[in-house]
Amino acid sequence: MSNQLNAISPLDGRYVNSVKDLSAYFSESALMQYRLKVEIEYLIALGNEKTIKELPVFPKDEQIRLQKIYQNLNTSAAKKIKEIESDINHDVKAVEYYLQGKVNKVFHPWIHFALTSEDVNNLSYSLMWRDGLKQAYLPALQSVNKELKKLARKYKKAAMLALTHGQPATPTTFGKELAVFCARLDRKIDQIKSHKLLGKFGGATGTWSAHITAYPKTNWIQFASKFIQSLGLRPNLITTQIEPHDSIAESYHQVIQVNSILTDLCQDMWAYISRGILGQKKVAGEVGSSTMPHKINPIHLENAEGNMGLANALLNHLAVKLPVSRMQRDLTDSTSLRNQGVALGHAYLALKNIQKGLSRIIINKIQMENELDNHWEVLAEAVQTILRKAGKPDAYEQLKVLTQGQSIDSRSMTEFLAGLKIPEEDKQKLLSLTPNSYIGIAPKLVGLL
Q: Annotated catalytic, 289?
């Protein structure tokens, strides 16, 4: 508790329990673990390379022992690496020295062989982002979308007044409006799932110079490609010292777009609650306002909106900053990349709050019906369309005179329809319409999800 109270970041303080699942991917200890994974898997891969005679193949049981070094990294081990870093002032080299202490001295020259720190770092940061995204963030996003689809289907026939430009417009259904967000999220989820991050492994300036000098007969491009692919990344073979970060920036933008979609959702839901057509379930013992006891504020939606704004500010900076590096490299990407977990943390926290907000939503059917009944002018679209069908050249203008800037009730609309000279079948169709029934195929559209 004391650590939470003294934390500078609210993600590590107030909201630590909500985002704790991300710690396994974005903490300092996690970064050490991913770096160890790259170093150890590279050492094993070198042993398997037939053209490198000086390093024999590691037996299967030894490979398993080596892999357990990163798989079972604990707090004590992480602290040891941090102590080494404090002495030498280099975080990647500290991992190398720590690993040396875990293997026979004869293998020390082969740890970090011909590599630059960025070979280890770019793969580690991409793996962290990929795993955090797909193991924690994506399931939370899918859970939100699942809840939205559930609500969309439940309320697919719940007619409500639509507002375009803030003005009464053609009615819709609450379920269909939620389905719009579901369809948008489905597309983004597919993109996140299919996106492949790039990785490089070409040495100090991306030329494999040290590698070629030591082993000119080794096909290092083939070796690097196979190694990068074994980690689940796509090889980027033409780079400077750094992987240019274009693919990870593209992934950041996918999350940015998700946040934009969900911000749109939160603001719409907030407005529906403000209009009174949506309500929120009461939670026993919960206080809505420090001075107004009647209130149930949409705090979860508001919290989500604020956190998505923070996430997008960070992700936009990273997406713009990381692909830019002076000549063959500078270090601005290093300190920036450490914040990708912070950015995803705010987005993840937003998802948790949206889930809570959606779980409390109930519709106010009476208020929905009252709104519709107070705006019969929204049927003007249907009436003038039937008049056009009947060949009336001034169809739009007739309805404009009747309805523009005015609220029309059922009586005045019925009187207007009764005087129209159109086929009786069409007149009866219009007379049977109400704002509550004028919803087109909105319920059927929900079925397309």
A: yes
Among candidate residues 76, 165, 294, 432, the one labeled active-site is 165
Structural contact between residues 205 and 198, judged by C-beta atoms closer than 8 angstroms: no
Is the alpha carbon torsion for 252, 257, 258, 262 positive or negative?
positive
Catalytic residue among 9, 230, 274, 289: 289
Q: What is the dihedral of CA 136, 144, 191, 307, to 10 degrees?
A: -70
Give the whole-angstrom CA distance, residue 383 versus residue 130: 54
Token couple for 160: 């409500």
Residue 412 burial (10 A CB sphere; 0-12, 13-18, 19+): middle
3-state helix, strand, coil in the chain (%, to 5): 65, 5, 30
Q: What are 141's two structure tokens?
A: 């996003």
227 CB burial (10 A radius; 0-12, 13-18, 19+): buried
Distances from the Cα of 223 to the Cα of 38, 47, 214, 427, angstroms: 14, 12, 14, 76
What's the token pair of residue 128?
Answer: 């962290």
Q: What are phi and psi of 280, to 5 degrees?
A: -130, 140
Question: Which residues on neighbouring strands pair with residue 363, listed in sequence order?
Answer: 278
User: Pseudo-torsion of CA 324, 327, 332, 337, nearest 10°?
Assistant: 60
Of 351, 165, 147, 131, the residue nearest 261 (C-alpha): 351
Q: Tokens representing 146?
A: 């699942």
Q: State how far the Cα of 247 lies from the Cα of 237, in Å rounded to an integer.
A: 14
pLDDT digits (tens, 9 = 90+) for 137-175: 999 999 999 999 999 999 999 999 999 999 999 999 999
Average pLDDT, the chain: 93
pTM of the model: 0.93
The closest of 392, 448, 381, 400 to 421, measured between CA atoms, is: 392
Which residues lie below 8 Å from residue 35, measured CB to CB, with a gap of 6+? Answer: 92, 95, 120, 121, 124
pLDDT 10s digits, 169-209: 999 999 999 999 999 999 999 999 999 999 999 999 999 99
Q: SS3 of 170, please? A: strand
Q: Is 165 a known active-site residue?
A: yes
